[in-house]
Amino acid sequence: MLNKIKQIRWRRVVYILAWGVSLIGLSVLMSFINTKKSNMTCAKVNVIVPGTQAFVSQMEVNNIVEETGGVLIGQTLKNIPIHRIEDGLRSNPFIKEVKVFSEIDGTVNVKIEQREAILRIINNVGNDFYVDVDGMKFPTSALYAPHIIVANGNIEERFTGEQDSVQSALAEDLYSVASFLVTDSLWNSQIEQLYVNEEKDIELVPRVGDQKIVLGNGDSLQTKFDKLLVFYKHVVPKAGWGTYKTVNLKFSNQLVCEKADSIIQREKNNKQHINTH
Question: Is 155 exposed, middle or buried (CB count within 10 Å of its CB: 0-12, 13-18, 19+)?
Fold first, then answer.
């Protein structure tokens, strides 16, 4: 029993010593790396701007870096004002997040996360702005315009230039519709615009067909678009593209279609023709 206890204690001692040596070694290694980095000068600046949209260019990032931190190449890594550079980049309205960090070979990396626009709003006084995937508003750019859904009409939402999220219930509904569309390849290719009418209902403007499609608000979007699919798959093939001028999706469990005036008049004429013979 005594031998067993001694064996257990020695195992614990060996285990603790091993961990202690590892920690000391790691601390020495980190200290060596930090000392080496603090004395090293910047040899290269690597700007990383991922994403499919191009609101921010590498040249623009480089200009902001030089304005806030000076020419980095040749500076010692410890003297580079990383936080000031990051703050300067974050002041750009098209930049969502930024991280500046150095490597042991003297490279300074500047990694940018751009805002990703999913909706462009043109309000009722002609001002326009973007809404990103997080529902945050940001300004348009004179150099770049992404191919995304546009909403216009009776929209009162304003953008003052300050970073802010969408505020009104209508703008939140437009954001919800845009978010839905970007996740569905079929509807994203078929719907090219959102229009807010006098009743503050959202209308969908399709690429194919000239029907007025009344969506209503941003609730129950999957159900509403399922009804629209029924219209395209089952109603249009039987009645023809020009039969209906309005498709209303806003009523629960109903697909309400209004015939075009020319169709109504033709039906009236046919009835009159039948009655006279």
Answer: buried
